[in-house]
Amino acid sequence: MKKFPNNFLWGAAISAPQSEGHSLTNGKSASTWDYWYQTNPEKFNDNQGPTDTSNMYEQYKEDCQRMQEIGLNSLRTSIAWTRLLPDGQTVNDEAVAFYRDYFQEMINHGVEPIVNLFHFDMPMWLMEKGGWEIRESVDAFAFYAKTAFELFGDLVEKWTTFNEPLVHIECGYLFEFHYPAIVDFKKAVQVGYHTLIAHTCAVKAFREVLPKGQIGLILNISPAYARSESLEDKKAKEVSDLLNTRSFLDPAVHGEVPAALITLLKEHNLTPMTQTEDKQLLRENTVDFIGLNYYQPRRVQAPENPAFPAKMPSDLYGHYDWPEKKINPYRGWEIYPEALYDVAIMMKNEYNNLPWYVSENGMGVAEEERFMENGMIQDDYRIEFMQDHLAYLHKSIVEGSNCFGYHTWTFVDCWSWLNGYRNRYGFYRVDLDNNFARSLKKSGLWYKELAENNGF
Ligand code: BG6
């Protein structure tokens, strides 16, 4: 039996824009997703937009019972900035009542809410001014963060500022998967820098409002593995880790941007605009914990035709198609649980053994209805996926990594950006043709047993 530490968090993660629905009613203003869907619905898989999503706005009470039924003792969700502060300044009282009741309901069912502030859902009023490209976004975010801490700090002990900051940067400014869908490496770096400073200012506000609480940052972690031991391939691994891991992890935990990253950006004329007080802000506002979302590793090799100055990250590290990789046939992503052990040991050795947790890990499956038998999705593939990852996580904990929990993506099937409802991840299936009715999958039963035994 692999036993996990006492009080280990067995949870799931979800986010406001992907699960609440009611995205343009009840006082909420438009995020970039609402705007993009209104103007370009054809971009979204099956024309599925952000308007309805999984209807937790109406079903949260029953959902909190469902959380308890599958043994969750925590859930990470987010607050929608555009619901709480529709114009950036004025508090929406209905939103306050909703979130307070939702968090209280979780607590009543033995589920600790972990609350995140930004999950790719930029308010449209701010995007119209320039979004994360302008320094003003930092103050706007810090105000929102402070407001949330004041309004919900008595119910929520653990907070996080951003989910996967690299994703809104890359997808919005390099890969065209998020609005404004432009390709501009220099702007991407500026957006990244303002996101980092916004995170830091939110941590500063947190220390003032909730000195006894804990605050962290959630990063998508895709550790790089080099094609070979050659100097060039090893260099590609270093650069990938610098851009994709250390860019946010080092400042969040150690209080400074890595010198090697500053040099690399300078060499490629990508240095962002900064302010003199930023260094001190970073130094003084490090986090209490880190959340790592792990899905798949990154296989890299020296870029074949490096452009100078770099126009895309692929000019700095090349993608390597590892022939031996095991693939999730229902989503196309590599399955490599060993990497979870590697990042856990990295947290131990390189990041002061700071408390951290797996804030997302899960298996997406397209057309999952094909696995429905006797009214239940028989998702044995998902159980195997979790078990394999947990075995490596357990090994790292035995070796001293300071991991305090495991959250799967996700609790109920949810809407996922341009992918709509294509890839299903939940413990509960959501029926889109029947008012988002939920039905338990086999993995939910397995998770309950796992949580009850605190191991497997
Ligand atoms: C995570 C994000 O990285 O991936 C979620 O935090 C997202 O917001 C999830 O929904 C799954 O993504 P996809 O592309 O498989 O639907």
TrEMBL record:
<dbReference type="InterPro" id="IPR001360">
    <property type="entry name" value="Glyco_hydro_1"/>
</dbReference>
<keyword id="KW-0378">Hydrolase</keyword>
<dbReference type="GO" id="GO:0005829">
    <property type="term" value="C:cytosol"/>
</dbReference>
<keyword id="KW-0326">Glycosidase</keyword>
<dbReference type="Pfam" id="PF00232">
    <property type="entry name" value="Glyco_hydro_1"/>
</dbReference>
<protein>
    <recommendedName>
        <fullName>6-phospho-beta-glucosidase</fullName>
    </recommendedName>
</protein>
<comment type="similarity">
    <text>Belongs to the glycosyl hydrolase 1 family.</text>
</comment>
<dbReference type="GO" id="GO:0016052">
    <property type="term" value="P:carbohydrate catabolic process"/>
</dbReference>
<dbReference type="GO" id="GO:0008422">
    <property type="term" value="F:beta-glucosidase activity"/>
</dbReference>
<dbReference type="InterPro" id="IPR017853">
    <property type="entry name" value="GH"/>
</dbReference>
